[in-house]
Every structure is written in C-alpha cells, then in structure tokens.
Amino acid sequence: MLTLAVLISGAGSNLRALLEAASHPDYPARVVVVGADREAEGLAHAEEFGIPTFTVPWAAHTSREAWGEEVAAQLDVWNPDLIVLSGLMRLLPAAVVARYAPRIINTHPAYLPEFPGAHGVRDALAAGAEQTGASIIVIDDGVDSGPILAQERVAVLPGDTEAALHDRIKPVERRLLIDVVRRIATGELALTR
To answer: Which residues of the chain have pLDDT under 70?
Structure first.
C-alpha cells in the first residue's frame, strides 16, 4: 500500500477527490497526513476522513529554507512513500526537493510546458490560447519543469473567465491525479528525475 502525504494551500478539491478514491478498499494508496502552509480550508477534508494534519505557516519563518526544513521535519514523522503537492502555492526549497526526489508530484492547471507558474489559467487566457489543460508532474528544481507523468487538453471556450476555465480544468486534474497515484502504487508508472 502506497502511503501519501498531501500538501495544500487552499480549498483542497483535489485532496478531497484523492481521499474519496483512497477510501475504497481496492485503491492501492492511502493518505497518511495532510499539511498546509496556512490555515487552509481544505484541512477540513482531512479531518472529515480522520486523517492527521499539520500546518507550517509561511509567515512564521524567516526564509523559504527555514520553512522548508520545518515542512520536511513534519513529513519525516510520517515517512510517506509519495508526497503530493495539490494546490500548494509555495515552491519547496531545493534542499527539500533533493531530499525526497523523485517522490514528489504536483498537479498543475495547464498543459505543460505551456503556462508554468502560479497563474497558468490566467496566463492561458491572456495568451489567447484555444486550449490549455491539466498536468501531473514530478517536482524538480525548476518551476513546473519536471518530468510529465500525465496530461490532458482542455478547450478554452469563447467568453471564458479565469474561474470558469479553472472549474473545467479541476475535474481533469482530479481524474489524472487519482490515476497517476494508482499507477505509481501498482508499479505501472515509474518516477524519474
């Protein structure tokens, strides 16, 4: 059984989908802990499913490195097989990435390498793209530049707002994430740097 730690910053819709999938006896992975960089509303999903949580507030640390050291200390308590960044809006420090690589994956609301960074949906709209997508990647030292594990296109519709487009991307992200974690757990998908 693959054990997962999930790190979030917000509402945790991908987290909820993963918790629901993992609650089925035939799903080969279990979430053992959920962490956040703030008092994220998504932590309520973990509590509902009886999953322990931790919070390492960004603002309480003097540097990204100090924050990352505390995140790593919390993760080490649980020793997860895989770390899932699911809406975590902070870049992990290079030392943290190196410590766990290649066992950190991330969801991203764009068809990478198109539109990396924190505003992938907004950037796709600003560029006038006719399509964007969702990607699941292995984290590396760059910004959304790691090996792509799965991705799928999503059409940009006339008159799309950032919220409307993001709402259409989210279900694709959830489905890809659940499938990628399953495939990692069963050995169908290997993690590489």
So the answer is: 193
Residues 40/70, Cβ–Cβ less than 8 Å:
no
Q: Look at residue 193 in the predicted model and tell me its pLDDT.
A: 63
The C-alpha atoms of residue 56 and residue 116 are separated, in whole angstroms, by: 25
The total domain count for the chain is: 1
Q: Compute the distance between CA of residue 193 and CA of residue 188 in angstroms, rounded to an integer.
A: 17
108 assigned to active site: yes
**Which residue out of 24, 45, 61, 108 is catalytically annotated?**
108
Q: Is residue 191 part of a domain?
A: no
Asked if residues 144 and 132 have their Cβ atoms less than 8 Å apart, the reply is no
135 is known to lie in a ligand binding site:
no
The beta strand positions in the chain, using DSSP E, are 2-8, 29-36, 53-55, 82-85, 104-108, 131-138, 148-155
91 is in an annotated binding site: yes
Residue-range definition of the domain harbouring residue 44: 2-185
79 is in an annotated binding site: no
In CATH, what number is assigned to the domain containing residue 114? 3.40.50.170
- Global pTM? 0.95
User: Among positive and negative, which fits the CA dihedral 91, 171, 6, 53?
Assistant: positive
Tokens of 87: 């809406």
